[in-house]
Amino acid sequence: MKLVLDQPSEPRATMPSGFAIENRLQSSTANSKEFWSRFSIDPRLFQITALSGILLFSVLGLGREPNIQILCALLIAPQVVQWSASKFIGFPYDTRSAMISSLSLVLLLRTTTLWVAVVVATLTIGSKFIVRFRGTHIFNPTAFGLGLALLCLPDAWLSPGLWGQATFALTFIVMGGLWVVHRASSFQTSFIFLASYALLVFGRAFWLDDPIAIPLKQYTHGAVLIFAFFMISDPRTTPQTLLGRACFAMLCALSTYWMTFELYWQNGLVWSVLLANIGFALSRCINTQSQMSNPRDPDLHAQGLR
User: Fold this and answer.
1) In 3-state terms, what secondary structure has residue 163?
2) What gap in Å lies between CA 160 and CA 162, rounded to an integer?
3) Is the pTM of this model over 0.70?
């Protein structure tokens, strides 16, 4: 009589469960984000680099010689105000934000009076610390300074058509490439604004049967991109959600079109940014009041009272 011993069966390959697969995917995603976060760079450094490149291009490529005194005032005064206000209030000193504002003023503001440049630079940075709501400034600093300069100060004007189509193409290529590389969410506002404004400008030309050269000249100048990439895209004065950024950008495009082509206002880009900032601040105020009147969470109600 033979005894047949059971042979040990080979372990069967088991399929991982759904939870195991999900955990592995989450782990790999987290590791990927941790890896790429080591190479992440503050998008403001990209903006500073692009603005500096535009300034160098205007001097070396277009042959424009800036007033050295005005240039130094617009570059130094914002840093002094930023440092002084930060020390007085107790905020950390951030030179990058002030540098973006100062370079934008250098590119857009035109004046021959030194004290006007100093006052505009002071108002620009000072608005970040004075005109605030719930911990953030309401207005884009550069737009606020330029708006007050146009309204209240003599010998101050803007030069939106100074840069030409070459600067438009250069800025668009540079900032488009930076957006593809860095994926900064604030740049979404810029591209939505550019697409909406282009639709309005070229649609108007099509309706009026204008030659293509007219909307191209109205649209492709460097000031449009300077406003789009360095003022409208300010993360502190724009909504945080994609839908909110899209509405904000389209509001800027509609108001710019209305002021420029219907009211025949100059510098409609500045006023449209300020108008959109006011609209965003009002929406935040209404949202805060609704949260305080109908709080779903006691902590949320306490946050609104602070």
Assistant:
1) coil
2) 6
3) yes
